[in-house]
């Protein structure tokens, strides 16, 4: 039978882990509230910029094509994989890697270069044979606006210089606390809505001429899209961590309850044994 001392040690260990999971849940919840606000504010902004771009494409001269809109023969594809810096977030990282691997099956190895965001993505794909162009291990709360701008500018530069012919994002889209979805989404080249799709959109008067402001708005869209995508992924990670830590805390409660019952039974058995020994000894002295 397991000793009372061993049970107490195990109980203490589980209680310590439970304190840790509760603390991690609270920290993630606090951060999620902040990131949720960013996601809610940035989505309409990105949609509005895209709407303006669609309007610009309709009024700009038909022979005008910005390099970021250019469709060319696909020789090299950049795949931005956004995962977490740490584990303890349920199936969050696993789902991202599963979607990425499924997408990569469409290409040969020499056609793809991975752009990895998050320590878990770096650790996972360093053990695989896919070529890696860029690694960003620490992000989330630690990522500054300047770093986001640099990252977005790098993606745009690689496309404009012809080093990458397409850039895709694989990330987790945040829906609600309990719901999220891994998305494989094309970032570059930027696709334009057709005239029929843009027909119902609001119309704008542009000054200066559309051709003159097209490039600036495209670059603004790229930066905002990168920022929003990172926010979506981080919010999803935090929500997954809250759910995982809450489940771990509940499981710890169940284990503590069962071990407490076992401890009490062992203690009771020990007391009963001692009483029997005392009784037997007393009988022997008669």
UniProtKB/TrEMBL annotation:
Give the family this protein belongs to, as stated in its UniProt record.
Belongs to the ATPase gamma chain family.
Write down the InterPro entries for this protein, in alphabetical order.
Answer: ATP_synth_F1_ATPase_gsu, ATP_synth_F1_gsu
Its name, as the record gives it, is ATP synthase gamma chain
SUBUNIT field: F-type ATPases have 2 components, CF(1) - the catalytic core - and CF(0) - the membrane proton channel. CF(1) has five subunits: alpha(3), beta(3), gamma(1), delta(1), epsilon(1). CF(0) has three main subunits: a, b and c.
Q: Which GO terms describe its cellular component?
A: plasma membrane; proton-transporting ATP synthase complex
Q: Does the keyword Ion transport apply?
A: yes
Protein's job:
Produces ATP from ADP in the presence of a proton gradient across the membrane. The gamma chain is believed to be important in regulating ATPase activity and the flow of protons through the CF(0) complex.
Q: Which UniProt keywords apply?
A: ATP synthesis, Cell membrane, CF(1), Hydrogen ion transport, Hydrolase, Ion transport, Membrane, Transport
Q: Where is the signal peptide?
A: none
Q: Name one GO molecular function term.
A: ATP binding
| Listed SUPFAM superfamilies | ATP synthase (F1-ATPase), gamma subunit
What's its membrane topology?
Peripheral membrane protein
* GO annotation, biological process: proton motive force-driven plasma membrane ATP synthesis
Per the record, the major location class is: membrane
Transmembrane intervals = none
Q: Where in the cell is it found?
A: Cell membrane; Membrane
Q: Which Gene3D superfamilies does UniProt cross-reference here?
A: 3.40.1380.10, ATP synthase, gamma subunit, helix hairpin domain
């Amino acid at each position: 039978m397991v000793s009372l001392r061993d049970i107490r040690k195990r109980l203490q260990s589980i209680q310590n882990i439970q304190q840790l999971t509760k603390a991690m849940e609270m920290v993630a919840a606090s951060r999620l509230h902040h990131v949720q606000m960013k996601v809610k504010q940035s989505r309409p902004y990105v949609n509005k910029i895209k709407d303006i771009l669609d309007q610009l494409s309709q009024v700009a001269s038909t022979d005008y094509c910005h390099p970021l809109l250019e469709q060319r023969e696909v020789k090299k594809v950049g795949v931005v994989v956004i995962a977490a810096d740490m584990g303890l977030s349920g199936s969050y990282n696993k789902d991202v890697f599963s979607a990425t691997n499924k997408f990569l099956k469409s290409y040969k190895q020499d056609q793809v270069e991975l752009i990895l965001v998050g320590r878990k993505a770096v650790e996972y794909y360093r053990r695989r044979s896919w070529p890696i162009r860029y690694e960003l291990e620490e992000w989330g709360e630690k990522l500054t606006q300047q770093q986001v701008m640099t990252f977005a500018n790098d993606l745009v530069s690689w496309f404009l210089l012809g080093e990458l012919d397409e850039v895709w994002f694989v990330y987790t889209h945040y829906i609600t606390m309990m719901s999220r979805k891994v998305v494989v989404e094309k970032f570059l080249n930027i696709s334009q809505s057709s005239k029929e799709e843009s027909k119902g959109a609001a119309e704008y008067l542009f000054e200066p001429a559309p051709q003159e402001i097209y490039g600036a708005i495209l670059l603004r869209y790229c930066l905002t899209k990168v920022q929003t995508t990172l926010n979506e992924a981080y919010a999803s990670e935090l929500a997954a961590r809250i759910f995982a830590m809450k489940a771990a805390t509940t499981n710890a409660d169940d284990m503590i309850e069962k071990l407490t019952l076992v401890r009490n039974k062992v203690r009771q058995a020990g007391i009963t044994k001692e009483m029997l020994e005392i009784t037997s000894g007393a009988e022997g002295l008669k």
